[in-house]
Amino acid sequence: MFDMDGTLLDLAFDDLIWNQKLPERHATTHQCSLEQSHAILHAFYQEHKHTLSWYSSDYWTSKVGVNVLALQYEFQDRIQPRQGCFELLEQLKAQGYKCWLMTNADCASLKLKLENVDLRPYFEVIISSEEIGYSKEFVEFWQIVQQQHPFEPRQAFLIDDTVPVLKGAANFGIENLITILQPSTLKAAKNALEMEYPAILNLTELLPYLDQYQKELDAKTA
């Protein structure tokens, strides 16, 4: 199970939209200073962080008076895969792994991302939390997903750059959790020793974890 933004795709696009372009457009629209715009938006972000509203283009459009989805389309050429994305997905497909894409991006943003980086051929299940009614941070998200697409939590791997999402998955019972050292190329990579979960930089670094897990399974059944 893969997250999208910051895991398969470079979070630099979202950083650009939310931390630079939206404050600029908001300041112009409401005729305030850029500093005031940053302060207003930061307060809004903190109020709604990790909720479905946080991930909703429609919500932010109505909240801040700027068409957020149109803003994303305006800069869609900046949507890029992370290092090792397609190399990993090709290898997983060749090895017969079942891959699911699980994103908190709303359906409209998911559509935009997939139009620019076509991940669809590699995934048998693609889910936006908007369709589920809960963001991935909540156990309810995973409960509903399991009802719709039955899976064994102890055998699943989840790769996600957001710690609250990994904790929500852990609370549900997913045991194999991997995070990302550099979700955005606009920011420096994190220190793996300071991470709460095993962490990878290039996505192909996931393969040794899968190999080790398979060896342990083989040893148990031998």
Automatic annotation (TrEMBL):
GO CC aspect terms: cytosol
EC number: 3.1.3.5
Protein's name in the database: GMP/IMP nucleotidase YrfG
Signal peptide start and end residues: none
InterPro entries (UniProt xref): HAD-like_hydrolase_sf, HAD-like_sf, HAD-SF_hydro_IA, HAD_2, HAD_sf
Organism: Acinetobacter stercoris
Gene that encodes the chain: yrfG
Molecular function as annotated in GO: 5'-nucleotidase activity; phosphoglycolate phosphatase activity
GO biological process: DNA repair
Keyword vocabulary terms for this entry: Hydrolase
Main EC class the enzyme belongs to: hydrolase
